[in-house]
Amino acid sequence: MTRAATLGLILIAAIALGLRLPRLDERPLHADESVHAIKFLGLWEGRGYRYDPDEYHGPTLYYASLPFAWLSSFVPSRTADADTNDQASRLREGTLRLVPLAFGLGLILLLPLLRDALGRGGVLGAGLFTALSPAFVYYSRYYIHELLLVFFTLLFVAAAWRFWKSGTIAWAIVSGAAVGAMHATKETFVFALAALAGAAVATVLWERWIPSPASTEAEPRRNSPCRQENQEVQSGPAPGAVRAPGGESGGFVFGEWRDRARLRLRWQPGLAAVAAALTASIVLFTSFFTNWNGPIDSVRTYLPWFGRASGQSLHIHPWSFYFERLLWFHFPKGPVWSEALIFLLAVAGWIAALWGRKPADGCVRFLRFAGFYAFGLTAIYTVIPYKTPWCLVGFHHGFILLAGAALPILWSLLRKWRGGRLAVFAVLALAAGQLTVQAWRGAFPYATDRRNPYVYAHTSRDLLRLVTTIRDITRYAPLGDADVIKVMAPGGDYWPLPWYLRRYANVGWYSQVPEDPYGTLMVVSSSFEAELDERSEKKWLMIGLFEDRPRVFFELYVAFDCWKTYLERRPKPPDD
Asked: pTM for the full model?
């Protein structure tokens, strides 16, 4: 990377940070975020962590959160719980969301490892699209596993590419460790590995059986599938690498690639990579050697997870689910959302690579592989009935890599057209502006709005009003040791309240209205039609109805004596 390209990538990372960092605490936690937050809280408070093969995904997210929580403990709290000293109350939502944010930025900072695969222009283009993609901006502010999985997948691909180029065993170890981290992040890593393996096979078959018009003998050097690879071999192996016998010619010869593969895929680097993968996976799944059932559970987990993926879930959607969100999404009375430009550039980049075109300093072979991977992973997620919108970031990142590489290809193709390059620059500038507006809109004003394609059964901002009401009541009418808050919702559908009520010692959680439903405060799903105020002859009062998420509501009941004390002690509103 040249100094200018490095500065450009740093500027892109700064833009990405500017879109992701502000107001991280503002959006209420999604139910899934709160589940992970509670899991991490147990680890943070010293109760340890134990992998659950039935729910919650892998341990990487929780262990990656520890340094952020530790650093945040030195920052004075500005929340409503600032007067408390316990870790549970002081841990903030924004601190947890720094974890996916950091890994999202890491996707940009890893790109220089692919500088001779995408080309310098491709690296900058992929970095820009990663920074501005509304999907990546939104889910980089979401405390779930997806951004970590995409990061480790890119790390594996980049490290494997560097090993392929240099033969240095250190890169084999890094690639293996990345696979272990993928395994310890989320069960769906198997889809990414399947797509990667399929892409490698498809690339070999394509280059063996289908001639590329741009790779003919007439222009062997200029249209070499990977000229950078040739130059590296001719200049000698890297320190610690083993050099292939003979050099590779400018034109593509399948036998030469086969010889390189035989050299690179020797048993020593392979063994080192497998050892690194197993070490990373075992260390994390055993919770640093305290739970030896963890690795076994990481295999056993596929029984319930494949059951969900095959259709035994509430999250069953048609094949078009992801395309509707990425290409064209328009909810009534809402704005239009589209990342179609990235997709179209990705298609163009892949077609160009299959045809033998590439960035001047890139590798056509890698772009072919990236295309087979991106569209193969898309096919896997499209076919599986189980769909949630955050799963799209995996294959969408493949589109982004291809789209970034497509920009310098288009730039070179239009070099002879009068005004062609100016037109490309103008279209890119307009597209960047359009993506930026959507990213800002999705992260802030539409962060919980169903008209945002990346919002999915999200917690309503009105639930924070319920939490604030409970905190106000208990501040001016403090709960005693015998006082209880009871929360009732069908099927345990009361998340994210366990996170927001974590400061209270006596909270009962119920999947139905219990035989004795009364506590000092009761939060009751409206679907029960409990009418606890009428049943108690007004000894408990329903003081409000609050929206948990679209079409899901909670009723708040308060004991009459508690409510009376609160009204007497709360500050009187100023006279108008």
From this structure: 0.90
